[in-house]
């Protein structure tokens, strides 16, 4: 064994550890509002923009655990026809990636499939109550052997992974010819009050999610479908849905209060009672592993 290679391995492990520690400290400082991005940038030898670019996305991705209850109460489930479309006939063992509190996991187990739910947040994982194998992991590092699942479903979570690392990882755990399906519930703006709701929410984020991604090799071209449906929920659950958006979770408390007041005012103007019907489009993409 070359000494240089061994030293490189040790150095890489040390850098990885230090990087994880640095990310943890940045998360704490931002969570407690104890430092600005300017100050964090300076401490890390970066510009403000460099520091924001480096961490703000991962802080958003890691933010769900703190609102796992609101997430589970407020976020919609998915139509059963989406499950039928995303999991090919004949598939038995399915990976639910970024399983969250288990909204899609539940539909997969109800369809009689053997499900492995992989989710990075311990708080989100702890809410999964269905009969599935539940593992800590990410799209970049899945704790499963090569070629061990027939299909993968990633509902409302693919935009949090780094595709450069997650695409080869998906191909590794899928059996050859297996499918990777990506699913997003998108509020249907065709209804004017939903468009108005989204205008209020968009004041707080510039991030647009690409719900029609292209993956490339070793996956074939995407097949797509859209399913229109209606989610019936209480007013409190709609406010939970708003509070469980990553960009709302990381807002300072006073801005979050103002945002919720704006949404409440919009609901009052619409004259909604206790029950609200929120139209959704479930957008699905399916990719076959070519090898
Ligand atoms: C919007 S939730 C979707 C949860 C669930 N699939 C659903 O449909 O309700 C996004 C989830 O992705 C998880 N996540 C964040 N980064 C991830 C990554 N790199 N790989 C896999 N999941 C990730 C979050 O912890 C969160 O639970």
Please explain how this structure is put together.
With 291 residues, the protein is of the alpha/beta class. The chain has a single domain (68-288), classed as Vaccinia Virus protein VP39 (Rossmann fold), CATH 3.40.50. It is built from twelve helices and seven strands. It has helices at residues 3-31, 37-43, 48-61, 68-74, 80-86, 103-110, 122-125, 163-173, 192-202, 235-243, 246-249, 253-270, and strands at 93-97, 114-118, 133-135, 149-155, 174-187, 223-234, 275-288. A seven-stranded mixed sheet has the order 3-2-1-4-5-7-6. Helix 8 (163-173) links the parallel strand 4 and strand 5 (174-187). The longest helix has 29 residues, at 3-31. Residues 61, 64, 75, 97-100, 103-104, 119-121, 124, 138-140, 155-157, 160-161 line the site of S-adenosylmethionine (SAM).
